[in-house]
Amino acid sequence: MHWSGEGGPEEDDIVESSLRAFEAANPGLRVKRINPGDAGSFYTKLQTMMAAGEPPDLFYVGNERIPSFAALGLMEPLDRFVAADTASTEPGALKIADLYPQVVDAFRYDGVTAGRGTLWGIPKDFTTVGFYYNKDLFRKAGVPLPKDDWTWDDFIATARAIGAAKDDAGEHFTGAEFVTWPAMVRAYLFTEGRDVVGETFDDVTITDPKAMAALERLRAWRHDEEYALTSGRSKIATGSAVFSTGRVGMAGPFGRWVVPEYRRIQAFDWDFAPLPRGSERANIILTVSWSISAQSKHKDDAWKLVRWLTNVEGQKAQARLGLAIPSNRAAAESDAFIDQAKPANDRGFLDAIPTSKVINWPPNAKFEQLLGTNLDEGLKTGNKPLPEAVAAFETLWKQERDSPLGRGGFPAMPWRTLTTIMIAITAAGAAAVVLWFRKRPLPRHEAREERAGFLFASPWIIGFAV
After folding, report:
1. Per-residue CA distances from 12 to 15, 94, 336, 417 (Å)
2. 338-395: pLDDT as tens digits
3. I want to staple 55 with a disulfide (CB 3.0 to 4.6 A). Which of 205, 276, 293, 421 is the partner?
């Protein structure tokens, strides 16, 4: 089970072709493919199938969901498969050392910290993040193009210069779109050696003076200056789409997923620059895995398919879409990824890998939701003063941690056992009713009328019992 996302029908066709080739190479195995559409529809469908006890054998999982899925026991640990393939000389065996270790670690979780411990997925591909920039607006504003070691001071100076420039009608351009999604704000803080939490999610560090100073700087760029950053209240275009208008000099932080959309831009020239440096160089790994269901009855066959879908040739085919970086280093360094198509700076994505981190997320998804909602109010829309928005996040997260539902740890509902018990009770009850009827000495016509009445009422009786 997968989604196509920004890859559209081209990605869908690649996955379909790969599956048919897998079937041809493995006679007797058949793969049923489920593609609900985008990521949102995918996770809704996946959770519905899991709740029904009928999950797909193999499915995508974003690295941010690994802690929650692992905590719920939804995925099969993959270490035994990896160990067997590492020792194997069989053609097609997956050699984990051929993949970027930082990307592999994104799917490790030890029950406390993401990036450590048990392996729960094999990365299909990944991305680092940075800013896409309009080269024509840089020239118009008379500013140099970004270098790979540029800083936040360079970023804001460039944004101000572009915001000061005007078109032929006298209208100002805007320096940059800076999204405040939780992952991107945390990546921004990483460049200043800070994060919103410490070693555990009980240790909230967002109010650390250096973290607050970095957040206040970002808030001021948007709300205390004109034309430096896009308005957080825009109803016209936001996120990645605003870059395509040609009115914004830079847009990000985004990964490779916007490239298929941006390659359709004809009105201006553009390229990519990695995340600017603060007190240190930093970036993040965003990635999706192939993971095997813990309930799968075909785990060995599912692993064969994982091998197939992550081999070098398959990764190269996906890379040509421009959508992501292959997790296989040989494929990433090949001309399938470093090609002549835009962006010219493909190497910028790869050079950021050594200083990239796996973002640690808790099993409780409310953390990301609460962080995102409150940061938006403090950094994007400005509906709340930043200190008030941060304090609201701290309070709400503490309430969530302290609540029994927030702590979790509840055992899974034994639906199969309960269903078996209900069926047994229903069968025993039905047998008792039949015996009771047979032993009652009723005239034949009265017995027929009684049976007809019970048959008429049986749907309601059965429904009530169930």
Report:
1. 5, 23, 18, 39
2. 999 999 999 999 999 999 998 999 999 899 999 999 999 999 999 999 999 999 999 9
3. 293
Is 237 a domain residue?
yes
- Measured CA to CA in angstroms, residue 282 lies from 147, 212, 277, 439 at distances of 15, 18, 7, 82
Its domain, for residue 453, covers 417-465
Task: Please check whether residues 167 and 43 belong to one and the same domain.
Answer: no
In angstroms, how far is the first alpha carbon of the chain from the final one? Answer: 32
Q: How many domains does the chain have?
A: 3
List, in order, residues 6 or more apart from 323 with CB less than 8 Å away: 5, 6, 7, 11, 125, 256, 257, 259, 260
Is 180 found in the same domain as 113? no
Does residue 113 share a domain with residue 82? Answer: yes
**Where would I find the H helices in 182-298?**
182-190, 209-223, 259-262
Rounded CA-CA distance 447/71 in Å is: 57
**CATH code for the domain of 225:** 3.40.190.10
For residue 33, give the 3-state DSSP assignment. coil
pLDDT in tens, 278-292: 999 999 999 999 999
Q: Are residues 100 and 216 in the same domain?
A: no
Tokens of 357: 């981190």
pLDDT tens for 36-83 read 766 678 888 888 888 888 899 999 999 999 999 999 999 999 999 999
Rounded Cα–Cα distance for residues 293 and 85 (Å)? 19
Question: What CA–CA distance (Å, rounded) separates 279 from 439?
Answer: 88
417 vs 304: which has the higher pLDDT: 304
Same domain membership, residue 140 and residue 111:
no
Angle subtended by helix axes 312-319 and 8-25, to nearest 10: 160
Written as one letter, the residue type at 341 is A
How far from chain centre, in Å, is Cα 65? 7
Same domain, 134 and 22: no
d(CA 157, CA 327): 35
Report d(CA 256, CA 453) in Å as an integer. 67
